[in-house]
């Protein structure tokens, strides 16, 4: 990881949770936290400021929890000027619940946080369509809903709306099906990854950005779109949706 990146110490802090979870988990964390623009954006733009109870649907190995916990630890202990200039203070998690269907990801996540008794992290093994949602003031869904059919997408979003506290927030990253080559590339990558992990080819339920916004509106949200594919060939969008 290049030390020239303003958030390189945050990548170090977040990925450190995975040193005891195996080499793959640690290397994947470093690569993903350092290259996926959504992680830096969440902190740089203060997208979760003031949100202390986070529900992460399709959490994988818990990267968001590691990122936020590592960021707060770094912020609290950093010398003056060490925190990236212009970034607001990171949120201090009081509770994080991640739901993940892949048993190997769950095992890596649980192992990563087991050695830190101060980390209020719970990783639930289950399907986001079925598992009960805990009350939260922020729900995060990154690159997950297109794996569900259209009816299930709506069902999940309605359940998310019910789980959010007053003035709750949803961060939903999607691929814009109207995005041309970038969208088709990202869809191919997702299908190839699914083929490797699930040993079968799956169809994806994708929508243009406008259709995602209409779906969110129908589920009780006011959504604002933020581009979220800088430095990548994809056309991902992060929808910041407030409970209406």
Describe this protein's structure:
The chain has eight helices and seven strands. It is of the alpha/beta class and 244 residues long. It has one domain: 3-Layer(aba) Sandwich (Rossmann fold). Strands 3-2-1-4-5-7-6 form a seven-stranded mixed β-sheet, with helices on both faces. The chain starts with 7 loop residues before the first helix and ends with a strand.
In short:
This protein is α/β, with parallel strands linked by helices. It is built from eight helices and seven strands, in the order αααβαβαββαβααββ.
Shape: globular
Beta percentage is 15-25%
How large is the count of helical segments?
8
Helix residue percentage: 40-55%
Query: How many whole angstroms does the radius of gyration measure?
Result: 17 Å
Average pLDDT reading: 91
Number of domains: 1
What is the terminal separation in angstroms?
40 Å
Walk across the major sheet and give the strand order: 3-2-1-4-5-7-6
Biggest sheet features: 7 strands, mixed
- Low-pLDDT regions: none
